[in-house]
Known about the structure:
The protein is α+β, with helices and mostly antiparallel strands. About 35% of the residues lie in helices and about 20% in strands.
Amino acid sequence: MEAGGASKSRGHRRWICPLLAVSAMFATLPLVAGYWGALHPVFDALAHFRLHLAALVAILALPLLFFRGWRQIGLTALILSVAAAGSTSLYGGKLAEAVASDTPSARYRLLHLNLRYDNATPKAVLSLIGRSNADIVTLNEVSDMWRTELAFIDGAYSHRIVCRARAFIGGVAVLSRRPFRHPAAAACHDRGSMATASISLGGNTITVAALHLGWPWPFDQHEHVNRVYPVLETLGPTAILAGDFNASPWSVTARRVEAAGELTAPRLVGPTWLKRPLPDLLRRYAGLPIDHVLTKGRVRALSIERLEDVGSDHLPVLLTFEIEPGSEEQPVLQAKTER
């Protein structure tokens, strides 16, 4: 009986270990290819799933550590997966620490959300905007339905630019409690996928931009970045860019956006998107981190956090920030407006 059990165990080992090893090897191919995103958008598309692929390789490699003759392969694959996962932590900066002062700086809030064009709970979104007490709101997928719903908060956010898009999912928007510094220069760009506005905050002027990039390869994300690149280069010296990039922070796509605007991420926000109706808890730990809030210049980020689910397939992101003392003047953005 025992001999038969041992024989059966050896038989299982004969095919399980090679299967795990081959599967781990094939999983490492797209994982490694994701580091070559600068060569072609197809590789950059794989980079968005770096954490997921690293987790898959680790799951496949771990059992091999318990079988003699397969431990070296398992250990190599495990080290590769840990290194890949660890490399993602290199992206994103460090939040500023609050400093006590006799004359503390004013604090502001920016709320970003991809609304989802057909969100079935618009009142939950409007309630969140009100409860967040955000000074500025940047929105993606502002469909015709949402243009109607946003009219309910006209009084609170009377300074706004809402861009129409040719796509049925809608364009982007920047809403503000604070006045636009140059109202005529607030502009829509690239068929409503990007909006820019100069906003006056306590005597300081800050450029705020909302951006919604297209999907990765085989779609036109790479070309989309090329189209908005000149606009990103014209952002003022003190600015915030928020949006759904459909790209992870460590992708070439995200780094190109940062480089064009000389922007940085205050801190990695974490996963924000997962296809509905999968649960919110799963989205927070296994979703894709594709919603970004980037800053530059005198913007001093104090905190950045994900808020509760409000019916979209994206989580809202809230940035709390200060503006450091300075005297630089924001340029007036000159661009064709497509409202």
